[in-house]
């Protein structure tokens, strides 16, 4: 019954989704070209606010826990489990004060209104998963960027979405490069729950009546801590927060 009810709502959702992307693409271009980074960042914030608001059509609710834990004035490495594409607008909007930048697969940097433009011009980096040398070089660039600007790098250590909520094995290399080249950063473990339910039936229809929970765990400085300890603590904290 819920799946049947979701079909007409999903049609409306996707129509508005693509409309939002089309509207904000020229808005981003104008903001960046005429007014610079700060205006462009605001346009990206509101793009993602609209994407989050659009999910309310599907009776989606959000709970954000411990936003007050986020340090200010230091670079942040935000490590998050990955359950669906809905993780990204949730992070960008609700954690917007950190200026989150992403490590994205190269395919998303082409042909998608608003999203591709922001990936190429907003401070994020794109990686080719088939070229490890290029990927690690791009992550190093992002590390140096956040070290200089005191902004945030968002990484999904699982690499790909879990799709059923159960965590995949975390990969070390990306986190290791971030810690090495952003030595003054704080690690911020974050757990997302229930966003996988938005895609429980695939891309269509979209899951109905879900409550996405984003939990910010206690940040800690990476400086002076052996990387294996940083990695183990980060993974255990994130995975420990995933609901069964």
Description:
Strands 1, 2, 3, 4, 5, 6, 8 and 9 form an eight-stranded mixed β-sheet that branches. Helix content is 44%, strand content 18%. It has seven helices and nine strands, in the order ααββαβαβαβαββββα. It is of the alpha/beta class and 244 residues long. The two termini are 24 Å apart.
Brief write-up:
This protein is α/β, with parallel strands linked by helices and 244 residues long. The protein has seven helices and nine strands. Strands 1, 2, 3, 4, 5, 6, 8 and 9 form an eight-stranded mixed sheet that branches.
Tell me roughly what share of residues is in helical segments.
Answer: 40-55%
Order of SSEs: HHEEHEHEHEHEEEEH
Question: Largest sheet, if any?
Answer: 8 strands, mixed
Distance between the termini: 24 Å
Mind sketching the topology for me?
Elements: H1 2-35, H2 37-54, E1 61-65, E2 76-80, H3 87-94, E3 100-105, H4 115-121, E4 125-127, H5 132-149, E5 152-155, H6 173-181, E6 186-193, E7 200-203, E8 211-216, E9 220-221, H7 227-240
Parallel strand pairs: 1-8, 2-5, 2-6, 3-4, 3-5
Antiparallel strand pairs: 6-8, 6-9
Task: Provide key terms for this protein.
244 residues, 9 strands, alpha/beta, eight-stranded mixed sheet
